[in-house]
Design brief:
The protein is α+β, with helices and mostly antiparallel strands and about 290 residues long. About 40% of the residues lie in helices and about 25% in strands. The protein has helices at about 5-10, 60-95, 100-135, 145-155, 160-165, 185-200, 255-265, and strands spanning about 20-25, 30-40, 50-55, 140-145, 165-170, 180, 205-210, 215-225, 270-275, 280-285.
């Protein structure tokens, strides 16, 4: 027990204390937040014998409080841009004193639709992040062909990749490989990683690979972009954190946080390493589970 807690016990000896928060460091050097309460002990003649101190680890609660503050701050910032754009163009189109050409109206309407879709995506990601923080992410497992799932994700991202001038190469075993996964969530993780890669690929080269074994499923998405500094790689999975090269890319800053939580809900890992092409490579590794194992 830290010296400060011992001093507190001496100070309040013989008194009952209201819960108060303190910090202490465990033997591994990890700082913990604790809630401390104290109550006196008396003998039969009501003379104080001692003081009982109760410590409750509230580190998780403090972490959640910090995340909520960051979340609210980031939400107000991230939502401001699309809302301002939608409001601005809608106001322009609604102005009775302006006679806009039909082509201009069509262009402005297209921007409003694009920003509305961006706003909708942000709100969905924020709701998903809130669900994750509350511990409510539960994969709905079913027996799925993982290779087919990866190829389908690459096919869906095709129009986005083409618009960004990117080429997606898929290298997955053509044979069927069945495993128990949540198809919707896992496919969305692969789509998010591919979409992320389209924002950074220098020459537009993106590769997604799939390796399926008796113990592990491994899916990797790599690009030839600037990559991520090794010191920043772990932080990339925190909410609202972006890399130094991400300022121009937009987004909510929640995609990798959600992807990692989804993979971990499958009992797996999502890591960021250097791609063989020199850019970033995200590697999904999920334990192989067959229907009979569930």
């Amino acid at each position: 027990v830290s010296t400060s807690l011992v001093r507190m016990g001496r100070r309040y000896f013989g008194e009952r204390t209201e819960p108060m928060e303190a910090q202490m460091t465990n033997r591994n050097g990890v700082v913990l937040f604790v809630e401390v309460t104290g109550a006196p002990l008396f003998d039969e003649e009501n003379r104080p014998l001692g003081w009982v101190m109760t410590l409750r680890d509230i580190s998780r609660r403090k972490e959640m409080e910090t995340l909520q503050k960051v979340f609210l701050s980031a939400v107000s910032h991230e939502l401001h841009t699309p809302i301002a754009i939608i409001k601005g163009f809608a106001g322009l189109m609604a102005d009775p004193d302006l006679e806009l050409p039909r082509e201009t109206i069509r262009d402005k309407a297209a921007i409003i639709i694009e920003e509305s879709e961006r706003l909708e995506k942000m709100v969905k990601q924020m709701l998903e992040a809130t669900r994750i923080q509350a511990g409510g992410l539960r994969p709905q497992l079913s027996n799925e062909d993982v290779g087919k799932l990866v190829r389908r994700a690459a096919e869906k991202i095709g129009p986005v990749a083409k618009a960004a001038g990117c080429t997606v190469t898929v290298s997955v075993d053509p044979q069927s490989f069945l495993a128990m996964v949540d198809p919707g969530r896992l496919e969305q993780v692969v789509i998010n990683l591919l979409e992320n890669a389209t924002k950074y690929a220098k020459r537009g080269n993106i590769e997604v690979t799939g390796k399926f074994g008796s113990r592990w499923i491994e899916i990797a998405v790599g690009d030839d972009g600037p990559g991520v500094d090794p010191a920043d790689r772990e932080r990339m999975f925190e909410p609202f954190v972006r890399g130094k090269t991400s300022a121009h890319a937009g987004g909510s800053g929640l995609g990798l946080f959600i992807a990692k939580a989804t993979v971990e809900a499958h009992g797996g890992t999502l890591t960021l390493i250097e791609s063989p092409r020199g850019g970033a490579q995200f590697v999904i590794k999920i334990p192989t589970r067959k229907k009979e194992d569930i």
